[in-house]
Amino acid sequence: MGNLAIRICITMLSQMLAHLDPATPEWIVQLERLKEEVGNMITSSVTSSLLERLHLIDALERLCVNHLFEEEINILLMQISSSNNVNDCDDVHTVAMWFYLLRKHGYKVSQDVFVKFKDEEGNFIAKNPMDLLALYNAAHYRVHGEKILDDAILFTKRCLHSMLPSLEGSLAREVKCAREIPLPRRVGIYEANYYISTYEKEGKVHDMIVQLAKLNFNLMQLQYQEELDIITRWWKDLQIQSKLPFARDRIVECYLWMLGVYYEPNCSRGRIILTKVISIATIFDDTFDSYGTIEECELFTKCLERFYFIWELVADELPDCMKHVLEKVFQSYQIIEQELSEDEKYRMPYLRSFTEDLVRNYNREVKMREESYVPKSVEEHLQISSRTGACHLLACASLVGMDVTATKESFDWISTMPKMVLALCTILRLVDDLKTYEVINIYLSSPSLGYSIKNDIFSDVREQLTPHVASSIDSYMKQHDVSIEMARFMIEELKEEQWKDFNDEWLDPDSAQPRKLLEAIFNLTRTMEFIYNQADNFTYCHNLKDTISSLLVEAFPVN
């Protein structure tokens, strides 16, 4: 880990802890008053035009105040979904917004609503950049076999690319961001600060909603800072820097990552547990990747499989630092279990089982690396690598801290590795491999250029150049005997196919799982796209500085 990256994270953490002040009673009083007034506004919007109602819902969600109005929004969505207005609507922007929001909320509305916007040659009748952007975003909720949506993405991507140089302001930013990560795959809470500032500046929504969003953001931020204080004290107790000098100190980034899974104030326990689990997974990753020998990793795996059962008796041959990891992991899982009520403790065996599976697959990767083995196909590669991204563990952990929404049936479901979880794991692996290749190629082609921050950042890249397990790109090249450029293109296509799998289960009307549970898994997948966008933001944590600051440090001035 580069020294500069360490300094950035320490500085950000110090700033955050310095801002730990109790929320003023005036803020809470103001928020409740504004909440009532905005709630009335939503209820009375039934007489507004379809587009106005759609924009209202979209604004509430982008400003991250939608959790305050779940019932009102759901009623509005049901009214919108059952309305025939969209069939008579000849405005592509309105229809695209309708399609986007309904699919976002799990309504499997038909792609056929876009047929009327295609000409005889198959091109879409849309020239306005806002119309194109709305269609582009909506189409990314596609599933397999939806050719109209596939065509819409190709068409709008081409048009928006040619238009971008002539666009300005927030629209230019929206198009640029959508081309990097389409709106359905973006993490709302990471962008809330930007949208509050932009909507206030441009007057896009009623000022009352903006003021509510600012108050709500500030109050949530205070809670996030308190949670981070709890987590950092736990992290310091692990003695990572003194006992495990090879391990990355990424506790702030871990919290930021998991904050994207559920940001709502009532999810505090879930965020804390989830952050602890991903931090533990990071320690495992570094232990297997950067420290342990093949024999030590094998023994470590056997010890972990025992959990509380006399693991010390078989750990004598492990280095002290690896024993320390095991001891702290077992202690941390005991703490997590203590935070659960008696009727929730059934969740822990599921968490331990997923943890054991992760470590077994880390161990398998070590053997692959030591043997310089390149799996013969992407499918063979993903049998292991889709598990070592730890996403299946995180999906399980996201349920552990939930309220009654998560049931034993939910844990049984997730233990079957359903299509949604498999897609999540595969998306992470493919995105990680694609971005790792990208960053390493920048370094190899110009080790003295590229990033403005040179030696500290590229020290992280140099770590990536040490012997590593073969990537899915390597396996694709071997399987199909193609160039790296073709392999990267096809891996990108495979990632898109996985998103279709994911959307298919998201839109399954027969799903027995609660929508809030599926939403957490969806958000976990969204965070993967953010964390690995352009470069591995988790490895090169300087990229996250602005997001950390805007979300966890910078409060809004309020009247």
From TrEMBL:
Keywords: Metal-binding, Signal
Annotated ranges, domain Terpene synthase N-terminal: 23-178
Signal peptide start and end residues: 1-18
Domain of life according to the entry: Eukaryota
Gene Ontology molecular-function annotations: magnesium ion binding; terpene synthase activity
Recorded coiled-coil stretches: none
UniProt entry tagged with the keyword Transmembrane helix: no
InterPro entries, per database record: Isoprenoid_synthase_dom_sf, Terpene_cyclase-like_1_C, Terpene_cyclase_plant_C1, Terpene_synth_N, Terpene_synth_N_sf, Terpene_synthase-like, Terpene_synthase_metal-bd, Terpenoid_cyclase/PrenylTrfase
This protein's record includes keyword Metal-binding: yes
Domain (Terpene synthase metal-binding): residue spans on this chain: 236-438, 453-501
GO BP: any one term: diterpenoid biosynthetic process
Named cofactor requirement(s): Mg(2+); Mn(2+)
Name of the featured protein: Uncharacterized protein
Classification of source organism: Eukaryota, Viridiplantae, Streptophyta, Embryophyta, Tracheophyta
